[in-house]
Amino acid sequence: MKRLHHTLVTVLCMLLVHSMVAQSPTKLWFDKPATCFEESFVLGNGKMGASVFGGVVSDKIYLNDATLWSGEPVNPNMNPDAHNFIPQIREALANEDYELADKLNRNVQGKFTESYAPLGTLFIDFDHQKNAEKYYRELDINNAVSKVTYQVDGVTFTREYLISHPHQIMAVKLTTDKESALNFRVKFNSLLKYKTVVENNIFKADGYAPYYVAHNIQKYVKDPIRFDEDRGTRFSSYIKIKNLGGEVSYTDSSLIVTGANEAILYLSIATSFNGFDKDPAKEGVDNKAITNQQLSLAIKKNFDEIKTVHLVDYQGLFSRVNLNLGETTAPNIPTDERLKRYFHGAEDKNLEVLYFQYGRYLLISSSRTKGVPATLQGIWNPYLQPPWCSNYTMNINVEENYWMAETANLSELHTPLFSYIKNLSQTGAVTAKTFYGVDKGWAACHTSDIWAMSNPVGDFGKGSPQWANWNMSGTWLVTHLWEHYQFTQDQDFLKNEAYPLMKGSAEFCLNWMIEDKDGKLITSPATSPENTYLTNDGYKGHTLYGGAADLAMIRESFLQLIEASKILNIDGDLRVELEQALEKMLPYKIGKKGNLQEWYHDWKDADSQHRHQSHLFGLHPGTHITTELTPELATACRKTLDIKGDESTGWSKGWRINLWARLQDGNHAYKMYRTLLHYVEPSGLYTNYSKGGGTYPNLLDAHPPFQIDGNFGGAAGVVEMLLQSHKGYIHLLPALPDIWSEGSVKGLCARGGFEVSMVWSKGKLDKVEILAKKGGKTTLEYKGRKKYIDLADGQSIQLKW
Ligand code: FUC
Questions:
Q1: How confident is the model over 405-433, as a mean pLDDT?
Q2: DSSP classification of residue 48
Q3: pLDDT (0 to 100) of residue 23
Q4: Burial level of 536, CB count in 10 A (0-12/13-18/19+)?
Q5: What is residue 689's predicted lDDT score, i.e. its pLDDT?
Q6: If you count Cβ atoms within 10 Å of the first and of the last residue's Cβ in the chain, which end, N or C, has fewer?
Q7: pLDDT exceeding 90 applies to what percent of the chain?
Q8: Are 256 and 207 in contact (CB under 8 A)?
Q9: 388 CB under 6 A from ligand 1?
Q10: Which of 707, 708, 709, 712 gets mutated to test ligand 1 (max ligand atoms within 8 A of its CB)?
Q11: From CA 158, how far away is CA 146, in angstroms rounded?
């Protein structure tokens, strides 16, 4: 009784505190369980993912493992004669026969990617007969723990969920304040093939993923999901319960707890994935043994021990950056209402901080597995045929996922992308040769998967060149390697990992470019990610020569390789070749509307507000267009953005925040940030291609549907407003919006290996502290005033401004 009284008082105090305190910058919370994925709380340790619904009668948890995909290693030599069409396409283009070029380009296509698979769903069913009261559910991104608490008949039930990276385990602690009141049944099901069994008090599910899943746009495929017992990635999901009081019993398909005071559920999962080039059925790792081992190690620890180690690990990454945007008067209401209130224009500075930090939380939770970067949905996908295969879409999306990795002080989470690029370079060498007739270097295209597929997609001619034929993702991806070097100053990484991949990509480009009629270097055939031109004759097409986007990416990657070769003092001849190519490349053009011209000719766009803006690559994420060094081009980029307007899909809005910040227009960047945080109703698999992007109740990005790139792009955009370092110096508060007049930030990163903390008030910088992780010289700039600093290894300096 005393215990019950105590709990009641605690709950009442909690509720009171909730309604009085200001909105939290680190908590999402609801007063009801999730009814759909877009209301659930996502947890992850960079490999294992869970989407927790927090139900009362039945709690539902979608499970994922980053390494569980459909498919098998790809044979990149899937269309050996495709390259024979390149000369014909070039000829059609030289004759300005765009229709023929589009048609012929379909011969330069291969298969679609495989899909990221849903592992299964865990159900925890309770014996509650009545509705719950005082329901509260939160995700605290400060410690990566989710909690549920409610009362039934005056008895309080609580659950705490976490996924520990050090233990590779999900732990759920279930408690009640009434003796023996905890009764529940655990069940598992999956859309994959599986069997459950209980052995040694462990509730086991073992199964396998399809060896083939068709893209959901391939409606013509008769048998879109194909299983074969002897093929595909195997998986295991094992559960053990530790109970305090009561009993645990088992059936073959469930685990039952009766009359307990407390129970800890330990969930271990693993797959047989053994690398992109290993058959997961025949050469896979032993998923059963791994799952068992993880479980038997974790079970020796109690919940608090697991949680303590989890917190040290998680906070070691998360707490590196602090952001404060000043006082807020926003009331403490559930996150969905909070988002709606903000959408209607209300102030909520802590929501703006929360969205930024949530981006960091999501990267920590989804990107810690070698060779397996975060997908379009991070690691959280419940569908067998997910939107766009939940794959790596490489004409913006997978890159956008990593824009904040360096600047927001999460550099090591960038590395899954690098090991993945290395895999891609291997299949990409075959792609370069067979699809493009280039014997040197490597190329990759529109989409990819865990098997590092690099070919152009479209299912051998069925896809539109609008998206299927683009071949510049290798060029874009290698810029991430250079960025990592810039931020870490890690010369070993530059020499041994980055440089060979950067060089391979550049070699492809050098051999891929041809001269136009004026002797300028261009790509041909080219496409400009997903945009459609309208020729003067009224033809709406996609295949062209000399598009600005390809050249922007090539230019940036060549400039970086030149720098890298100087630092490493190697490949002098190649450097000269790159410098000559840069001289000869077709320069940017400014169109008659004052826009940065996307097409070789000054054509109209079929959709002038299209979500893609790849020809602005040089402004962001590239660095060769700046308001200072190339003001005319920067102005033309601004014009292009003006024409496009602010309404778009989630990832596109995320990108535009960064673009506006690079134009040093903080107020417009902030306007875009608010637009990204537009409330969007949960929409499941529904896709909208042009407008309506924003944010779901659980703060995940709405393309729509859910796509995580907007979360990451938005978080990257916040840093870009506060700190930039791409122009060879550290620009402090380069695009501070008027509304963020008071604030402070700790731990942002700048190129050169510096960490920057700042305090500002009344819209003006007060103090800055710079830590040189590797020592070195740099220049700080704020509002045109420069200060030079020269620091030793590990030294920091504080300056008043
Ligand atoms: C590209 C984009 C779409 C979407 C998809 C995953 O095709 O144009 O908007 O993001 O990738």
A1: 98
A2: E
A3: 82
A4: exposed
A5: 87
A6: N
A7: 95
A8: no
A9: yes
A10: 707
A11: 11
Ranges of beta strands (E only) in 512-632 are 514-515, 521-522, 533-534, 540-541, 604-605
pLDDT of residue 524 exceeding 90: yes
Give the number of other Cβ atoms within 10 Å of residue 197's Cβ: 12
Q: What is the pLDDT of residues 315-347, one digit of tens each?
A: 999 999 999 999 999 999 999 999 999 999 999
Strands (E), 209-289: 212-213, 225-226, 234-244, 247-251, 254-260, 262-271
446 lines ligand 1 (CB under 6 A): no
Residue 557 φ then ψ, to 5°: -70, -35
The pLDDT of residue 690: 76
What the block records as the tokens of 764 is 């003006």
Contact 222, 214 (CB under 8 A): no
Does the Cβ of 390 fall within 6 Å of ligand 1?
no
Question: Cis (ω within 30 of 0) for the bond into 587?
Answer: no
> Residues 487, 751: contact at Cβ < 8 Å?
yes
Contact 454, 445 (CB under 8 A): yes
Phi, psi (rounded to 5 degrees) for 497: -105, -50
Burial 355-374 (b: 16+ CB within 10 A, else e): bbbbbbbbbbbbbbbebbbb
Place 227 in a pLDDT band, splitting at 50, 70 and 90.
Answer: very high
Pocket lining: 468 vs ligand 1, CB cutoff 6 Å:
no
CA contacts within 13 A on the Cβ side of 758: 29
Q: Is the pLDDT of residue 144 over 50?
A: yes
Residue 139 contacts residue 357 (beta carbons within 8 Å)? no
Backbone angle region of 184, left / alpha / beta, with phi > 0 → left and psi within -120 to 50 → alpha = beta
Cβ 695 vs Cβ 339: under 8 Å: yes
- Region 137-153: mean pLDDT is 98
Is residue 610 in contact with ligand 1, taking CB distance under 6 Å? no
Q: Cα–Cα distance between 526 and 614 in angstroms, integer?
A: 13
Residue 188: name the closest of 146, 154, 237 by CA. Answer: 237
Question: How remote is the CA of residue 161 from the centroid of ligand 1, in Å?
Answer: 33
Split at pLDDT 50, 70, 90, the class of 21 is: low
Residue among 138, 163, 141, 489 at smallest CA distance from 322: 141
Q: What is the mean pLDDT of the chain?
A: 96
The answer to whether residue 146 scores a pLDDT higher than 50 is: yes
User: Which CA distances in Å does 192 have to 68, 69, 448, 686?
Assistant: 11, 11, 22, 23
Nearest CA to ligand 1 atom 11: 393
Confidence band, pLDDT 50/70/90 cuts, at residue 8: very low
Q: How many of the other CB atoms lie within 10 Å of CB of 419? A: 18
To test the ligand 1 pocket, which listed residue (217, 377, 388) has its Cβ within 8 A of the most ligand atoms? 388
- Residue 514 CA to residue 431 CA, distance in Å, equals 19
- For residue 621, whether the previous peptide bond is cis, meaning omega lies within 30 degrees of 0, is yes
Mutation choice for ligand 1 from 375, 399, 530, 701, CB with most ligand atoms inside 8 A: 530
Verify whether ligand 1 is closer than 6 Å to residue 376 (CB atom): yes
User: Rounded distance, CA 168 to CA 164, Å?
Assistant: 6
Is residue 467 within 6 Å of ligand 1 at its C-beta? Answer: yes
Q: CA separation (Å) from 250 to 256, 568, 729?
A: 6, 62, 64
* Rounded CA separation 781/726 (Å): 12
* Residue 496 structure tokens: 């041994």
Cβ of 652 below 6 Å from ligand 1: no
**Rounded Cα–Cα distance for residues 494 and 567 (Å):** 9
Rounded alpha-carbon distances, angstroms, from residue 739 to 134, 484, 567, 638: 36, 32, 42, 22
Which residue among 394, 397, 644, 649 is best mutated to probe the pocket of ligand 1, counting the most ligand atoms within 8 A of its Cβ? 397
pLDDT of residue 408: 99
- What three-state secondary structure class fits 593? coil
Max intra-chain CA distance, the chain: 90
